Amino acid sequence: MDFMESLSRATYYIMIKNKKGLLGFIILLALGMVAVFADYLAPYDPYEIVGDPFQPPSDKFPLGTNDIGQDILSEVIHGTRISFYVGLTAPTIATIIGLVLGLMAGYLGRIFDDIISGVIDIMLSIPSLPLIIVLAAYLGPSLTNIILVIAFFEWVGVARVVRAQTLSVKERPYIEVAKALGASSSRIMFRHILPNIAPLTIAYIILGATSAILTEAGLSFLGLGDPTAKSWGQILNHAYARNAFALGLWMWAIIPGLLIAVIGMGFTLLGMAIEEYVNPRLKSYEAK
Amino acid sequence: MSKSFLVKRSIRLIIVFFIIILINFLLPRVMPGNPATILANEYQLPPEAVESLEELLKLDRPLSEQFIAYLYSLFTGQWGYSYKYYPTTVFELIMQRLPWTLLLLGTSSITVFLMGVALGIVAGWRRGTRVDAAITFSAVLVYAIPYYWLALTFQFVFGNVLGWFPISQALTPGAVYNSVLDYIADVLWHLTLPVLAITLTAYATYTLVTRNTMVDVLSEDFIMVDAAKGLPQRKIMWHAARNAILPPVTLLAIRIGHIVGGAVFTETVFSYPGVGYLIYESIIFKDYPVLNAAFFMLALTVIIANFIADLIYSLLDPRVKYER
Predict the structure, then answer these.
(1) CB contact under 8 A, B146 and A214
(2) Angle between the B246-270 and B180-202 helix axes, to the nearest 10 degrees?
(3) Is the pLDDT confidence value at A288 over 70?
(4) Residue A207: inside a domain, yes or no?
(5) Is residue A229 part of a domain?
(6) Which among A128, A134, A269 has the least Cβ separation from residue B257?
(7) Inter-chain CB proximity B212 and A223 less than 8 Å
(8) CB within 8 A of A201, min separation 6: which ones?
């Protein structure tokens, strides 16, 4: 009961009272609806050739057709699904890994901390984007590979914050009590410390979504995307490769890029609202 | 600057450098299909050719022996030949392209930092006002804009439509320069749009961090003392700003990789002849030796830049001295 009450209070603050959160929530809700009802909203099958190639926007094709005669509007609508899929799976995987390793480093300390902190330190020094690009190039074009590669680099940030949080939570008296009562390390980590840092990790999933979406779009733009999954980045790649601007088909390039920015903004705003709720020091900035 | 700090950072630099070499060595060898078979598939080579290629690339030797040979050729600049630009060697190709990337990176790092920090200081100083809201909101908006999208848009608007700036390359093709100044002017003219595209998509993080630090600093006692002393507002702002500048410097060290990412995309859009555009070309042409070398060079650039930023940071912040 108590949990439900605090959850609903958190939801109210994050999504209604906080202006950033409300705006982010509205953006994501609207795009989420598009993703769910893509089959009904899209006028055509995005993989089907429905008209002549390189057509300018018209009543029949509101955003025109692409280089092989597929409807761009339908491509864009279906692309929403890929964005949500990448934006939610990659950071979720990253957060789970970061959470477990961060808890271990923070709570178990000693050799665990030495190893995990060392790995974090080195991972942070390796330039991620160039490495993501070569990895994606060698692994071959598949959405799953892209998601795994993104997650492989995103867990580091989560682990670092979780470790720091765990270090401060583990000094609290009730943890001492649990230890005295003979609770096992894993029980203390997952039952007693985890609930304290869970809200923060949710903020990380939401904030990580933006960078995951941008990375997938970037890889697709460079021609490393999954050809069977039409994402916004891939539509942009085709528009770029076929010189859409020079052909006067500017909607082809403008719309998908704009949508990447909008969904990214939605996730960032919602993430900032959660962070402000979790971390009262940030919240007080608003009041000032 | 303490010695142990320098030693610690140097050890990390060496470890990271070694890991990057290892990745570069292993990737082509552990992935399905070794470089010889990939090449054979790409150019429909007969089986004898595959065998002699494997011999040439020493793929039939044990991995440890291959690694030693690899290290030797890496440090002697024997990086093989580009498939696309044959007979140009990979080393020549990279050395032709690297200066342009360094120019683009150096210029954009400076503009990103200056613009981000300046806006952050203003937003933090006028916290809670409309100015603050406008700066913060626009920062959140541009934070998620893809580099290549803004680059494409700039290319179209300022290049194709208005004709103010060139839309590709780093120099006017076939141009004859009367003086060094002419040459520099042409370089800068071609540099403007790429730098602008990177700056406007990358400044946001610096603004948000500087703003929050500024707000923090402004609530500290010494600011109250300043105000009590009756110092003019401008002086108080300067005092706070000087103290709010360290976190963005750290950020520059951590996020220099993001600017490198921005360079890869922006160079691609503008066909700017740097390492980033080379990566795009090597992906398209499956030019793996070039891809590996380009990755190696970019990674090296980032870790060296990080190291330099670390040193600058330790010079700026006296507290780092006491770190073990």
Answers:
(1) yes
(2) 110
(3) no
(4) yes
(5) yes
(6) A128
(7) no
(8) A95, A98, A99, A158, A162
Q: Name the minimum distance, in Å, from the CA of A241 to any CA of chain B.
A: 10
pLDDT in tens, B119-173: 998 988 888 888 888 898 888 888 878 888 888 888 888 888 888 888 888 788 7
Residue among B128, B143, B303 minimizing CB distance to A125: B303
Does residue B85 contact residue B93 with C-beta atoms inside 8 Å?
yes
Considering only CA atoms, give the Rg of chain B.
24
Model pLDDT for residues B186-197, shown as the tens digit of each residue: 888 889 899 999
CB contact under 8 A, A261 and B31: no
Q: What is the sign, positive or negative, of the torsion defined by CA atoms of B221, B225, B231, B235?
A: negative
Structure tokens, A125? 């020094």
Taking the CA of residue A48 and the nearest CA in chain B, the distance in Å comes to 25
**Out of B141, B215, B295, closest to residue A285 by CB:** B215
Q: Residue A130 and residue B260: Cβ atoms within 8 Å?
A: yes
Within 10 angstroms of residue B50's Cβ, the number of other Cβ atoms is 17
| Residue A97 forms part of a structural domain | yes
Percent of chain B with pLDDT over 70: 92
Count CB-CB contacts under 10 A for residue A252: 28
Structural domain includes residue A20: no
Which CATH number is A57's domain given?
1.10.3720.10
Write down the ipTM of this complex. 0.78
Number of domains in chain A: 1
Provide the chain B residues 166-195 that lie in CB contact (below 8 A) with chain A: none
Structure tokens at A20: 């950033």
The domain ranges of chain B are 96-284
CB contact under 8 A, B212 and A282: yes
- From the list B23, B156, B298, the residue facing A250 with the nearest CB is B156
Structure tokens at A18: 């906080």
> Tokens 């991995």 appear where?
B63
Q: Is the pLDDT of residue B272 over 50?
A: yes
Residue A28 with chain B: CB contacts under 8 Å: none
Chain A hits for B158, CB-CB cut-off 8 Å, are none
Q: Which of A46-50, A81-85, B297-301 has the highest mean pLDDT?
A: A81-85
**Quick check: B128 and A288 CB within 8 A?**
yes
Domain residue limits at A164: 49-282
Residue B317 has pLDDT above 70, yes or no: no
Residues on chain B touching A260 (C-beta within 8 angstroms): 144-146, 149
Chain A closest CA to B185's CA: distance in Å?
A: 27
Q: Which residue, A82, A42, A34, is CA-closest to A220?
A: A82
Query: Is residue A282 scored above 60 in pLDDT?
Result: no
Which residue of B10, B140, B255 is the best one to mutate when testing the A interface, meaning the one whose CB has the most A CBs within 10 A? B140
Task: List the CATH code of the domain at B96-284.
Answer: 1.10.3720.10
Average pLDDT estimate for A172-197: 79
Q: What is the pLDDT of residue B34?
A: 64
Q: Inform me whether the pLDDT recorded for B18 exceeds 70.
A: yes
CB pair distance less than 8 Å for B140 and A265: yes
* Residue pLDDT, tens place only, A173-185: 887 888 788 778 7
- Closest among A27, A4, A13, A6 to A209, alpha carbons compared: A27
Q: What mean pLDDT, rounded, does chain B reach?
A: 81
